[in-house]
Amino acid sequence: MKIDCGSRLSTGLIPAALVAALVIGGIAEVSARDRYKVFLNMSYSGNTWQAAAANGIKALAATPPYDKTVEFKTVISGTDVQHQISDLQSMIASGANAIILYPLSPTALNRVIKQGCDKGVVIFTYDSTVTEPCAHNVSNITARYGANTAQWMVNQMGGKGELIFNHGVAGTTVTKTYDEQAYGVFKKYPGIKIVGDFYGNWNDATSQEEVAKILAAHPNVDGIWTVDGTYGSLQAVLNNRPGRLVVIAGQSNNGYRLMLADPAMQAKGLKGISSSAGPAVGGYAFKLMMEVVTGKKKLTRSNIEYPLPWVEAADVKVCQGDSFVGGCNSFPAGKVAPLFIDTALNGELLPELGLAAVQEGKATPGARIEPLPDVHYADNLPGINCSNCEPTEDWLKPNRVAPIAVP
Amino acid sequence: MTAASQLAQVRSVAAGGSAAAFVLLCIMTGIYAVHEPSALSAFGISNLLNNTVVLALAASGLTLVVLCGELDLSGPGVMAIGNVVVATTSTGSLGATGNLAAVLAIGAAVGGLNGFLVAYLGLQSLAVSLGSLIVCQGVALLILPAPGGEVTDTIVQAVSGDIRAIPAPALIMAVTAGLWLLLKHSRLGVALYAVGADEPSARLSGLNTRTTKLSAFVMSGIVYAIAGFVLSAEIGSGDPRVSDSFLLFMYAAVAIGGTSLGGGRGGVLGTLVGACILSVLQKMLFALGVADFYTNIFNGVIMILAIFFGQLSAWLARARHRGQG
Amino acid sequence: MRMRKARALPRAKVVPEAPPVWRPAVGPDLVPALLVFAATGLLVVGMMLASPSFGSFDQLTAILVTAIFLVVASFGQGLVILLGGIDLSLGVVIGIGGMMVAGLTRGSNDALMSAIPLTLLSCAGIGLINGIGVGLAKLPPFITTLSSGITFFGVALGITAGSSQQPVAPALQTFMNSGWLGLPYPILFTVAFVAAAWLFQNRSAEGRKLYAIGSSPGAARVLGLPVAALTIAAYAISGLCAGLTGILLAGYAASATLDMGSALLMPSIAAVVIGGARVTGGSGPYLGTFAGALFLSTLSTVITALSFSQGLRDIVQGGIILIALLLQSGRLNLRHHRWRWAHHQQGGGLT
Amino acid sequence: MDVAAPPLLAFRSVCKRYGATTALDDVSFELQPAEVCGLLGENGAGKSTLVKVLSGVVAPDTGTIRIDGKPFLPRVIADARARRVSTAFQELSLVPALSVAVNLFLPRPAINRFGLVSTRRIEADAEQVLQQHGVTDISPSALVGDLPLGMRQKVEIVRAFSHRPAVLLLDEPTAALSDRQWLFSLIARALRDRTSILYISHKLDEIRALCSRCVILRNGRKVLDSEVAALSDDAIFSSMAGRSVGEVFVRASTEIRRGAKPVLEVTHLKGSGIDDIGFSVAPGEIVGVAGLEGQGQSRLFKALVGLSPLQTGAIAIEGVTVAIRSPRAARRLGVILVPEERKSEGLFTGLTTMANISLPVINQASRLHLVNQASERRLVETVTPAVKLPERYLRLSISALSGGNQQKAILARALLAGAKCLLLFDPTRGVDVGAKQHIYAMMRGFVRGGGAILFYSTELDELVGLCDRCLVLYRGAIAGELARAELSQDVILALASGHSGGRTRRANPRAHA
């Protein structure tokens, strides 16, 4: 199956390149050169999530057949949006065929992205989005993480209890969207009291500090809602009152997933959902982009939704090997750091990736790129993935978890 | 006598440090142009200028405060407020000019507050401006809690387009340089240098050191606001956090441009060159094929070398003079 | 003979040329520190009045535990600022410290005894490089440390890809999260650290020399103090403290990322300055820095306890910092206003 | 007294307190038109405060000042200038980073029709102003920071005169000035323009030469206001000090230990600003160095402790040739410089007096690197009696001390550091009479103990009174060497200004080339 797929890919390569040249248009040198010039433009760097995402992309770019057909280069722009603009310009000027980027701002890059599109560059963003319609956003920001996890927590808490609300990074669209959704859900249940809220900056250490301080003032907290910094938040609870844990929603750190599945922890009251944006969205976006570049796939809309990871305690399944095969979704404790993000891997969409791939950015030996299933287009979210557009009516409501009645 | 005036010249050039920085800029641009033929095309230059102008403006504002011997961290805060105000109101009834005026007023107010606390109450500028930076960021977040808003095309075109085939950013930087030269040779400019070089002497010489410092802060606040305004045009939207990362680069531009962070030496011309160096540096590294984490390493090393180069040339200039005299 | 006579004159007749009629129990340079301690107390009391759930013993302990990072980091920053310098590489070095200790221990306690010294040594080494740049090459501290921070961030990013793939040694986690006789180890550590830092900065011969160099570099040179060596040492200690902060932070969070120290850079500078030190060097006792660190940690807790939007939180935080500065400089204390201000108020009093 | 003429300046019951210190306590005096009035007092007596009050730097707490009968309440310098009160400050108020020309016209340099400061125009104006005041050796375009101290003082004085003031305050104008006659002629000319001058100085001969009347402050109070001619030196000194003071120079016998190896011997020293200098200082000897401003004396002293690079030459300490590359190396060899710029090179203003003194030996007062304050105090108290520094000052910040006591502390530090050879560069500048005596006594005590001193002073009478020998520098070389018997101010001056005296050897003929 794998081999079959690979050979089909390689034989189809040359016509595919020609098709791509036609589709993209305006780039005469594509056919002249035998490699696609592809850039990964990172902005933030130096944290686990970004590193895992970038490594996944790098590994895929080194996986056959892309190791032979893609000239891949990583550029780190840092947190300065003007730097990112400048680097994107440089990439466009140097004749890039495709650029995959983590945008610093949903709107600030629009102009340079438009410049790129006009020159025929295929531009994909991962996780974070831009409103320029010629770029493709691959993200699960539209998957209603805020509404779904909040509803899940409410259901688990029986509609009442004290809650800590861990915002992400202030001033970002993700935080604003998820906060709005989660608040909307929690507000419906008068029994839910938010006793503390803070901006954890998607950071475990910060979250741990802040939760520890709030717990000292509110010892009876029943639940913590997070987007990231989940493991840190839970650590604070474990240190403060190890005998009584909480209902919690958030990231997919390996340590967190293992705790969810641990019967001893469950006995102490730990109920958690592991969701939130996974670094694998980067790899997925890359694969999708390459399929577009090579002409295998045509996208009719700009925004693609990456499926929202959703792992409850019962779903946790520890892998024996180095990759997610057979539906497993976490690693044994000694194998990876507790903060390792399990959603860096995706057994269905990215079977090419193994542990080494997302840790070191190296291709898994023997792996070949496998085709992606059909995409799921995302809803519109004005100001996030489109401008001058209307959101779907129920964008604040959960679509994966059924609400319980207000007690 | 000629020896003394020569010495003065040597000193002023060396102390400005901008000559060394300028040579460095030319070298770097040369390397960039050799490796990237499109560098010197109209499009390439226009892009480069568009990328530089905001940092150049912000760092120029900072230079004014640094020259008079104080430090200022509030720049990104003012820029953030400027940006979100433009993004939330520019399509409204104020119009482009009214918008600019409002933003300038905000900048002047923040600068004025900093200046008052520093010059009249004797508080430390670093700490004061850190406080006002945080307050400004808060205000920006209140005005626009998440990226969004829209900047009217009038402003975008005026600031980032071409005016009679000359890129508007080039004009903005030229005007900045021109205004700086006027300021430098005005009484206020002389006072800035005097206060920065030796505040007690300046006071005993009859200068009003407080109003001088206050003016420096107010002027810098206004320049930050302009930088925020230009930034809005460059990115076409509002983002309350987008200016946060400017702070250290502003200081880097000032220092690379040869302005002493202790005050009294340097100038805005050097800062403009310094900002250009930082932009071209990024382009040059890209053109040389430096990618990934190496970019950081090269960035850091080249910044050190730029400063070292400046100091070395100043030292050589002095040594050569001493050898002659 | 006449000289001797002059000497025999009673002391009381000799002109007192210096002021001290009001002789406080503490040195005048400690006053800002005490005022900042007082401001910290005010914050706590104010919050306790506003929200009764605030200010329990547990919560105060929690504040102290989380203050440890800023306390340790700001000591190094304070030493460098004492010399009129600044260390902008601190945030990066904290990240490197955390990453190293995680990477070297690989989740087991066995390697801890070698990993900690090795980590501290490497971080001190980065500081050493900063110190050489500032002390020997005479490069401006601001740009030297900024550049070295960027450079070493790049190096670390290249080596680690940005995040530790290993958990931190459990012993370190235990240390950060448990206690002895009801007192968390981090608080005991903080007490010991503060005592050592104070002894070094304000009671040791080397500390004295650092003040001397910061106070007048020219005089230090003429007197033949080892200016370059002490400058290098101060930056190395700053690197060491940053590394230690990184180790503690990694132990606390059980894992490490390269960017985890960046949030501490500005507060570390602010703590020193709020404590009464001047950025031009040569002033400010260590207790001021400690007070500043404690104040900022408490402030962040108080801000968290207010359920505001981030915008309002920032405004309150910035505003309180400004008020603390006014308080610390005595501007809000009307009895002790300084002559510069008094001059203007009383200038018209001549009639 | 001339009762009929109304006073130009009337100072009535002025009080000024700084915190708990009373700087001026009910001081009243008058200044008549076209008069030079001397203002005397030890450091800390209130002279500087009085100057600051008159020039608008500080406002008095109570009291009135009138000029021409109208109230005078300057709040800033500019107010005082507007009422034609102008000051040459002791601490020099020139901005080093600016040119002489700009400094002369601060705060309002002339501007052209575009509102810009025209460098050419103000330099031309400055050239003219300098020439009008008899200064030809300073370029208006030179940066003040590049000028030697003496020239800076000249610029400061010219600036004060150039405002054509009605009241001119000269605060220690000759502290760094070598050419006093130039100043005296300016004063004479100003008097002809009916300017009244308040002349502050420690130098009694200047007061006698210039002033008809003098006011003496002590402890912030006026203690004497009388015709100068009617006062004996002793009366003036005792009014200033509140006690009688010993004779200025008592140096009856010499302490030179002949035959012993010279403590310091230098041969053929060449470096920037110094040209083939050689001399030796024996134990117990005070060797003076004289020279007009900028003749290499500063470089020489710095070169001896490794602060200024040497091209050739050898330095031997007690007969052993040594390499001195840093002040640290010099200190280990017992060679200690008491520097020219007390404020920037001598004092650690952030430290207490005690810490200032103990700094070089602080490790000796430490156990386990922690300073033991008791042993620090014991160490410091071994040297403070030698300079007569009262122990109650030890706990204060050194910046709170008067210039004299600051200098005593620096000298005490040099002694404590184990000096065998002291290099004193103008140690009595800005030091009051009483403290000067203590410094002289300390110098005598030091050589009596076998130490050697190289002593530069701008005050020739000190050199004449104290030195065993005196080297006169001219253009970086030794123009002559005078034995004790030959020492006189006239001979020194003649040599120093390039006229070789008949009896002295030409140390280096090339120096005049």
Report on this structure.
The complex is a heterotetramer of chains A (407), B (325), C (351) and D (513). The radius of gyration of chain A is 21 Å and the shape is globular. By secondary structure, chain A is α/β, with parallel strands linked by helices. Chain A has two domains: 2-140 and 279-307 and 349-360, 3-Layer(aba) Sandwich (Rossmann fold); 143-274, Rossmann fold. Chain A is built from 15 helices and twelve strands. In chain A, strands 2-1-3-4-5-11 form a six-stranded parallel sheet, sandwiched between helices. In chain C, 59% of the residues are buried. Chain C is mainly alpha-helical and 351 residues long. Chain C has one domain (27-329): ABC transporter involved in vitamin B12 uptake, BtuC. In chain C, strand 1 (179-180) and strand 2 (183-184) form a beta hairpin. Chain C contains 15 helices and two strands. Chain C has a two-stranded antiparallel sheet with strand order 1-2. Chain D is an alpha/beta fold and 513 residues long. Chain D has helices at 47-55, 77-82, 100-105, 119-132, 149-162, 180-192, 204-210, 233-241, 297-304, 327-332, 342-346, 353-358, 373-381, 384-387, 403-416, 433-448, 460-466, 489-496, and strands spanning 9-18, 21-31, 36-40, 62-67, 70-71, 85-88, 167-171, 196-200, 213-218, 221-227, 264-271, 274-281, 286-290, 310-317, 320-322, 335-338, 366-367, 370-371, 421-425, 452-456, 469-474, 477-483. Chain D has a six-stranded mixed sheet with strand order 6-7-8-3-9-10, with helices on both faces. In chain D, strand 1 (9-18) and strand 2 form a beta hairpin. In chain D, helix 15 (403-416) packs parallel to helix 16 (433-448). Chain D starts with 8 loop residues before the first strand and ends in a 17-residue tail after the last helix. Mean pLDDT of chain D is 84; it is low at 501-513. Classes of the chains: A alpha/beta (407), B mainly alpha (325), C mainly alpha (351), D alpha/beta (513). Chains C and D meet through helix 1, helix 9, helix 10 and helix 15 of C and strand 4, helix 10, helix 11 and strand 18 of D.
